[in-house]
Amino acid sequence: MTDTPMTTPPAQGDGTLTSLAQLFSRPINGTQVQAIEIPLFQRDYAQGRKNEQARQVRERFIADLCAALDSDGKSLHLDFVFGDVVNKEDGGKQIPTLYPLDGQQRLTTLFLLHCYLAWHQPQSSASAQPWHAFQYATRPGARAFCQFLTQCRPRMDAQPVSAWLCDQANYLPTWKHDPTIQGMLVVLDALHRHYQDQPSELLHAAWLRLTDPVNPAIRFLLLPVAAQKLDNTLYVKMNSRGRPLTGFENFKADLEALLHKNPALLEADGAAVKAFSHKIDTDWADLFWPYRGDNHLIDEECVRYLRFLFEVRAWKQGLSVQTSLGDLSALSVLSKALLGNQASAAHDNLDWIARALDVWLTVQSAGLSGPQAIAPLFTSLFTRDTESIASTPLRIFNFRDFGDAPVGVNMFHACCRLYGTRPWSLAHTVLLYGVLHGLMQGTPLADMHHRLRILRNLIEASRSEIRADSTRNNMPALLAEVETIMAGGPLHAVETFNQVQVRNEQAKQALVGAHPTLHESVCQLEDHELLRGGLTVFDLSPAQDPRAFASRARQFFTLFKHPYHQVSAALLAKGHTGRSRQRSSGHRLTYIGAPRQRQAGLWENHWRIRYNEAIHPSAAALQGLLDDLAFGQTPQAVIDTFVQAPSTPKDWRYYIAKYEVMRGASLDFAGNYVLGPGPGYAICMPLSDSCDNRSNHHDAYLLALANEAGLPTSDIGNHGWPRCFPGHETNERHLILRRSGLKIRCVENGWALSDIPSEPALRNAFDTVASKYAIQDGLFAVPQTQGIDIEDRIIIGAQLLHELIEAGL
């Protein structure tokens, strides 16, 4: 049984209201108790276990016991203790002995409390006390240890007191293996930590209140089993013959006690408190049963959903929420903050929590109601289908975070299974709160669809805004704005979600308001993997021809069915220069486009306009490309037209568009380039977004040169080719020929050659090739006009490289 103290004594009936000391001075059913023995079938003493659950139970129980012993403390009633007094033969004598069936943990802790306070009383050491006759039959060592405690007198300056006890000559070595004894030592240390700084006068007063023969501070109701016409099956039913209660069962008991200790709550709505206590073991338990875990218990599932409710309620009120705590610890802290004596809104909080549980009992969907309707409801709201083009149900992108968890799109199930774990994020909390609030407000399903779409879009764009850390906790404001959105409120009132996306939502509403036929086109674009609700790269002007927008929407889907590296080249052909950031070296870090489909997240991030951008830098190129596709061109045809046009300047855009290898389709590459100044004849391809000593990177021009020349890796002397260049983007990068050590580097005006071999045969071979290609001072110049190539430096450079290899270099 859980050791949950009561402040109000239970009805006595046939029981006896007594304390541990009083028990030995009054008859029980006509028999004077002379001993207490924990029977053999009982479990070990559990309150001293060292796990987190036991620690919480122990600390709360000891705090309640010690509070009752304070001079101004309220007396404490520990509920029923079930057991009977039986005559036990001992040395030819009949000793009336109480055998508790339930209450072992409480009685043992009371015995330890008596021992500890008695050690502080000078008069108690001279004679045996009746309560010393407390024994354990579970193990011989536990029986002997109880006697040992009543006969010793530890030094109270010992830290901890268990160290002194274990150091005594009559402390047996085998006792360290007895879990009951070790548990008792833990509890004695806990009592010592509470009382070690108390003056002797207070300790004496606590002892007097504990052992008061008339009005003791701590009592329990002893209920004889035989008198109640019960047998041992009662204990089996109550405590599964020694199986400890789960953490959730202890939490429920603590929560119920907390509610009953709040006089304002009881006065405001005592019926609600009673209903809550009843439903958590009946109606709400049935609610979680379909989602039980492999252990066939609902504890973890119920705890996670309750934590969700308690945390969002706390955030709404601006209370501190410690997301790093374990589930039960978090619930314990939050329950006091929301429902305890000091909670000013305890009644409203209890009402909201109850309604947030009841709503799932009344929800209706697909002709079903109650728990059976939850899964169909979410199926009607959400989908994971990547090919869906319907506006409802709504595609939710971050459901993939749930991994292999068998939750589908059922967010209630996902919350029960995953809340507080790594797969569940604050973004999921915000979305589920939107669903919950809509249901609790009775929002029609059609309105739910529309409003959840807006909420989904804002969530996807607000990864930086959705946070609840110590530096910035936006959850109170975000949850309030969720309520505004789910109520159909104005978007201008939404100030915490990403403001670029808020303006994008307003622009979409204006567009669809002017052209209702575009509703499906807008929804389909929002559901695209690479857009995720954000259409900031599109022209949303209501003045445009709606047919042009619908066409571009269709072509966007067509475009990204092609290889991503081909898309990035086609965008370059339409004038795209990427999203750039100037570096102190004079180079530019530019995102052109990740080359592989599995890098979709990088594209999705690219299509979102930044706060400091009036127009998306890719908007014109994208819309021009989509219009070309609408006229029947393919991305490759657009690329070919660009690179073959005589008017196309042969700068970095030309080379990246023409040479697939420079787009990194087969490399570890994220689509970022560090471009040299001007026409960009120095291009570093970093692993992520920076050229530094943290990782090696590629040189785009050397890649294309080696590839165009058909140079095998065996002829390349660079260790780790092709991602073999460390350091800053201004560092020189060379292609090294293995046989001769000759180095080739791409420079502004052509190809620079260095480390020319001095060995006569190799030098003669080099001079022959150099003469043919007019190489002077180690430079193979590329024809240029105003610093721009007029011949393809990759083609002519590859010809040179091929001849150098053929010459034995």
Q: Tell me the helix content.
A: 40-55%
- Let me know the largest β-sheet: 6 strands, mixed
| Shape by Cα distribution | elongated
Radius of gyration: 39 Å
Strand fraction: 5-15%
Number of strands: 23
Low-confidence stretches: 1-12, 227-243
Distance between the termini: 87 Å
Mean pLDDT: 88
**Which structural class best describes the helix and strand composition?**
alpha+beta
Question: Major sheet: order of its strands?
Answer: 1-8-5-6-4-7
Count of alpha and pi helical runs: 29
Describe the structure.
With 809 residues, the protein is of the alpha+beta class. The chain has 29 helices and 23 strands. It has a 6-stranded mixed β-sheet with strand order 1-8-5-6-4-7, sandwiched between helices. Strands 13-14-15-16-17 form a 5-stranded antiparallel β-sheet. Strands 18-19-20-21 form a 4-stranded antiparallel β-sheet. α2 (104-119) crosses α5 (179-195), α16 runs antiparallel to α17 and α21 (546-559) crosses α24 (619-630). The radius of gyration is 39 Å and the shape is elongated. The model is unreliable at 1-12 and 227-243 (pLDDT under 50).
